[in-house]
Each structure stands twice: as structure tokens, then as C-alpha cells.
Amino acid sequence: MTNSQKLSSLIDSRNGFCNANSTFYSKRNPLPLPANTSLDITTFISSQPHRGTTAFIDAATGHRISFSDLWRAVNRVADCLHHDVGIRRGDVVLILSPNSISIPVVCLAVMSLGAVVTTSNPLNTAGEISRQISDSNPKLAFTTPELAPKVLAGIPIVLLERVGATRGVRVVGVLSEMMKKEPSGERVRDRVSQDDTAMLLYSSGTTGRSKGVNSSHGNLIAHVARYIAEPTTETNEIFLCTVPMFHTFGLLNFVIASVALGSTVVILRKFELEEMMAAVEKYRATVLILVPPVLVAMINGSDLIKRKFDLSSLRTVRCGGAPLSKEVTEGFLEKYPTVDIFQGYALTESNGAGASIDSVEESRRFGAVGLLSSGVEARIVDRNTGRVMGVNQTGELWLKGPSIAKGYYGNEEATKATFDSEGWLKTGDLCYIDDDGFVFIVDRLKELIKYKGYQVPPAELEALLLNHPDILDAAVIPFPDKEVGQCPMAYVARKPESDLSEKQVIDFISKQVAPYKKIRKVAFIDSIPKTASGKTLRKDLINMATSKL
Fold first, then answer.
1. Which of 113, 147, 261, 442: disulfide with 430, CB 3.0–4.6 Å?
2. pTM for this entry
């Protein structure tokens, strides 16, 4: 008997738990990973067989791009980047753009060269973007004329669309022209390894300022392989992309997986509830991928939505970004009884791996985020003692598998704090796994605030608050909100004699951060409660803020 056969015999088939090593194993099918280690994610995606015809549709204009035209465009853009711009393996390329058909073309072209894609939220301020640029050091940026001034001077820019003169930036190309240019015929490119970094997406991790997550070609190949192992969608599915494509949720679903599977994706440039519903009706969308606040908006506006729009094509809603409560799930099913709702759980650091609900039967396990993804191992660890727990015991969820990122770019301290020496990712989420292998999130150990699915790190806002001349100390907490999930609330200790107002605090922060990071509520307090070691007692402040709800 081989070691793997011995291990299999020790694993409980009901919940996937192995007593011998206190590890939970996925009950899903094994991952069909390619044997070739010199394989980039773009080549892997392009080699997947499917019968899809239309790859992407722009919801606003109706412009379509077929799979054959997509791959032609990817090859031409890659050729231009290699020969005309000089992009090579390991070079970082920034994409700063609202949702667009252009994003998949650029991402797939860049990664085919062994170069690295990094993305930034177009809502971020120039200061926030410049910090990311300083950290990732991109050789080139793809952006729109409107957003180009946010890119540091001196970085070459390829415009996603041609307009009149763009001042103060160094334009070296226009994407539409690259897509029309015949390839040079020379296909000599750098050899790419699956261990090479493919994407550098920024996440706040468990605390603090955003850090670049090193996701390799192998990580992304494992993400696609999961859909091959567990096909949950048909080729004729029509997805509506409502989530940001700069975020791992949008990129992995709508640039990586959908192209590999041959599905059609209708792209909304920005989210607006009525526009989303109009697009479902116009393009006969079958699948929506959403964050919980959008689901809540659909519930609250259901009567108007159903009177105004024909949603008969819609079969499935997949929801991620934050846990979905039983009340919200049941409320949605009551309003939209013909639509199945499936939850999922993953992190930027796990590249789509984690847990998911993949069938109607599984969706009846209210409160669960699903069964462990294909190829994923999990442990439940007591944060205080380090003891590894068993079935139905609560602790921090640790994940391991081929999708788990390599660490944080240029940040060894943060990498060591989040990834252990054996490759386990400490998620920062308090969870348990039940008798049937379903994962339940009990609480978030990490301090991120989830505003409409966006990550807001309290430490970043606190650092800005402490720069105000009238503020002695400050702490930022998540305040529950039915519409947006959570909103940032600040507790502020003013300096003696100061008459600083709530509005002044809100205005001070709003000038320095993206709209989703704005502080929405302020309470003044004599002093911020802290432990003996000086750590803010955020739980005490949360209890104080929510006690009157």
C-alpha cells in the first residue's frame, strides 16, 4: 500500500478529516494539474477545449468579441509588448481601468510573456496609486485618458482608447492599434515556469496597508483546474460581471475561468442596480456573481425590479466577498424563488481556493460557505495554544494547496506572519468544519472592514487620523450596515480645548482616500481602550457602538 493509499484509508469519507494529522481534505474531485512545469497560465487557458463562441460583451455598447478574435488580439498585443515596448519575463505591468473588454486582452497578453499583471482600483487617489507603483515598480501602465494623470510621471502608458492630446504623460501606444497590428512572425519568448509570478494583486491581508500578493502561473492554473475537476457551469452560460475586474474576485472569474470554460461574460463598466437588471434582461444572463450588499439591494428593491425587468433567464447567483447570513439567503429565495443562490469563500492569497456551495442540495446547509475546494487541505487551529482542532471545533482556518500564493511581494515580515514554513495560509477567520465537511465562518479575526465587498484596513485610516493636529488618539471599527455590509466608524480622542466636529473628521479623511474608504460615522471618546501591551481593544469599541442598535 502506497503512502497516499494509507492516508486515504485514514480519512473520514463523511467530513474529510484525518485523525492522524488533524487535517481536513477536500471531498471534491482531485485537481487535474498538468505535468508540464514550464507552462504559463495563458497557454494553459488557450489549450482548454470548449464550444463557446462569444467571449465578452460590453453591456453599455453591445460590442462583442468572439473567442477567435480574443486570442488573435492577445497574440498581437503580446507581440507589440515584446518587440515594440520591450516587456520581458518578470516585468510588472499596471492596469488602471474601470471594467472593460480590454482588461482580459491585456492580462492574457502580459502573462503569456511571463510578465506580471498588477491592478489598481480606479477609485483610489493618486497618492494611494503612487504607493502601489513605488512598491511594485511597473515598467508600463495600461489606463484610460481620464485616469492617466493618476499614474506617476515617467511611466510609459498605453491608452485603452484613442482620444485627443493627453498632457503630462508619456504615451507609447494605443491598445486598439496594437490589436490590429500583424505579428512580426518572431515567436521567441522567455521560457516561463509555473513558479514564476503571474499576478501581483494588492490585499490588506490580515491587517495594515495593502501588500502585493505573489500569485504564480501554477496558482492560477490550479484555479482553472478546479473548474475542470468540478464543472458547475455549462458552456452556454451567460455571466454578468458586476464585480470589479481589478479585484481577485473579478479577475479570476471573468478573465481566467470564464475564458477557459468558453462562457460568455457581459461586462458592466460600473455597478448600478437598474443597469445590472436591464443587462440581465437584454442579454438573457443566466448567472450573476455578486457581493452581499448587492444581494441585499435586490431583496429590498424586488417589487420594482420584477415589475420593470424580465429576469426569467436568471438561474443562479453566486455570492462571495463576505459571509451571507441565513436571513439574507432566505429573504432572497423568497423574493426570487426560481434562482439558486450559491455562496463561496476565498481570499486574494488563496487565488479562488477555499470553500464553495456548488449544488442546490449543498445550498440548503444555511450559514455554510461550502465544502473545501478541490485540492485544498484545511486545519482549524487554536490561536492561543497553536493546537490543531477537529470536527465541530472552532479556531482559525488554515488552508494549503496548489492555489495558495507564494507570499507578499518584497515583504518578508508580512509573509512570515501569514504563511507558515510548510505553506499553510493563516486566513484570519474563525471557523469550524461540521460532521459533513461544510465550512462555517464564525467571526473575522482579521480587522478588515468590508464595505460593499471592498477591503478597508482600519490601520490605514487610523494613521491618517493621527496626523490631524486636533487628534490625540483614534481607532477605526466596522459598523454594521444593511445596505453596504460594514462602514468605517472612527472613535476619536480630541486634544484638550479642541472643538473638532464629526463633519471635520469625515472631511479630513475623505480628501485623502478612495470613496469606499471614507469614514461614515464618528464618536468622540476621552481615551481609546487598549490592552496592557498597547493594542487597541477593538471588540470593546464595536460592542459600545452596536449596543444601541
1. 442
2. 0.85
